[in-house]
Automatic annotation (TrEMBL):
Listed name of the protein: Transcriptional regulator, MerR family
Entry-linked SMART domains: HTH_MERR
Matches recorded under PROSITE patterns: HTH_MERR_2
Gene3D superfamilies in alphabetical order: 1.10.1660.10
HTH merR-type domain residues: 18-79
GO MF annotation, one: DNA binding
Entries under CDD domains matching the protein: HTH_GlnR-like
Amino acid sequence: MDPLSEKIRKMIASKQLKISMSEVARVTGVSTSQLRYWEKKGYIKSEQDEQNKNHYFSFPTIFQVLTIKVFLDQGFTLAMAVKKERKRRELHKIFTRFITDGIKEVEQTGEDSGEVKLGALAEDSTKEVYAVIDGEKTSLRIRDRKEN
């Protein structure tokens, strides 16, 4: 992974990026009273400053808020929207693990094309799996593994 991507990933994962409640409300379209209610119910969490007045939300929590709002906008109840968001978050953890652990190298081979190396096959370490992205088409392939 390139150094910039790694720094961004670590910044988001560290949860050090914090945004005020009013800014979260402005960006997501969820009112501050709704955010307070969701927090009171335990659906989301914030951190408060020293005076225990201002609420600050982490980057992942903002995604939670946005996702809950999307489900509410689709007509789900708040309880169901939260349940669906939690399921989506679990799937996201799995996907994130795949991205961080599974992708070994990304190489651009043309203007709209590239190759993503996914590593050796579990059943045959002499073969590697890779994805070829060619314009709008993506395909998975297997080839003999090159020794470094």
